[in-house]
Specification:
Number of helices: 12
Largest sheet: 7 strands, mixed
Structural class: alpha/beta
Distance between the termini: 41 Å
Length: 356
């Protein structure tokens, strides 16, 4: 994916048309001609997600260093800061989304392709630890080429460190949402990016460990169409939901709302317990109706019989389906997601029977 710069007109890398920069910005940095997703700068992502002036950055004071004394590394870091406008490849902090507090982290593609060095790992880890202490949910917008080669093993250590912090956050009963943007690869994919309680992705984002060209050269085989794109990973169970930018803020807010611990609101006047029907009465009614066992079998096989989604949509107004099993594929026979029932957040699981 390309990035939106300061020119009045920019060329879309996909459709090759010249488009107006301001119009593309108003369209959430999506090409209005072909739907191509440009990469989003950190401050623009904050503006798109967080309530106005609610974002408070954390841990900006962490100093850079060159742990392996890699030649020219300091100059590269300085150039990256100037090019990206941020101090490091990730920015973390607290914000509000429609009034709900959350901790967010945003990877910056213009800072050495969002690569993960020791400062990135430290900022992500500290943000997760502080979120655990404050009992706040965490949203991480991932975009990275992977571990930073100039830091070698020091960079790879951040995979374990961030993962350990997320495990403690999970044990504390707190929510972690990973939002995968283009590209999410390497050590970031192999650590915090794929550890979300819910994993969201932007359309057509490249997501994987090694890149498709490396894999193709290694195995000597042609890869499937759309391999390692968000849609491919959704089909294979590694992503829960693909969310376009237009609806992203609303979806994040809905997830926050549906994970707030609330008591169910019930009107006692509407709750009337009915006595259970005895087996004898049921059989007698069946006998009088003239239906036999085969009629019952036919009824159970009827294409008009309600399926799980019919019940779900009748019971819940705000059901949000998720797809990933993190293992093999999205099984269409099982429907799962979150919703609220009379004000109480619930997890919904149903067995979905086909119509044929």
């Amino acid at each position: 994916m390309g990035s939106v710069d300061t020119e009045t007109e920019i060329k879309c890398p996909k459709c090759k048309k010249m488009i107006n920069r301001d119009r593309a910005a108003k369209n959430k940095y999506v090409c209005y001609e072909c739907g191509y997703y440009f990469r989003v700068k950190t401050h623009n992502r904050i503006r798109m997600v967080a309530d106005r002036k609610s974002f408070q950055p954390w841990f900006e004071e962490i100093e850079e260093s060159n742990p392996l004394k890699y030649e020219g590394y300091e100059e590269k870091l300085s150039e990256a800061r100037e090019k990206s406008g941020v101090k490091e490849a990730v920015t973390v902090g607290e914000c509000e989304i429609y009034g709900e507090k959350a901790v967010i982290g945003i990877c910056e593609s213009k800072f050495m392709m969002g690569s993960m060095g020791h400062v990135v790992g430290e900022k992500v880890t500290r943000a997760i630890e502080k979120a655990t202490e404050l009992r706040l949910p965490v949203f991480l917008f991932c975009c990275s080429g992977g571990a930073r080669m100039q830091e070698g093993i020091v960079s790879l250590m951040q995979m374990a460190k961030t993962s350990a912090a997320l495990e403690k956050h999970h044990e504390a009963g707190q929510l972690f949402i990973s939002v995968l943007t283009d590209p999410t690869t390497g050590g970031v994919t192999a650590s915090f990016a794929m550890l979300g309680d819910i994993i969201l992705a932007e359309p057509n984002a490249l997501i994987g460990f090694a890149g498709p060209r490396v894999i193709q050269q290694t195995i000597g085989q042609k890869l499937p169409e759309g391999f390692q794109r968000a849609e491919f990973l959704l089909e294979h169970g590694f992503v829960d939901k693909i969310v376009d930018r237009e609806n992203q803020r609303d979806v994040l807010a809905d997830i926050l709302r549906m994970h707030k611990k609330q008591e169910m609101t019930v009107n006692p006047q509407n709750v009337q317990a009915e006595p259970a029907e005895s087996v004898e009465n049921y059989l007698e009614k069946q006998k009088k109706s003239g239906k036999n066992a085969w009629d019952t079998v036919q009824l159970s096989r009827s294409a008009a019989r309600p399926v799980a989604l019919d019940y779900i949509h009748a019971l819940f107004d705000d059901f949000m389906e998720f797809h990933g099993d993190r293992y093999f594929s999205d099984d269409g026979a099982i429907i799962g997601g979150i919703a609220t029932f009379r004000g109480m957040p619930v997890t919904v699981i149903g067995q979905q029977k086909g119509r044929t």
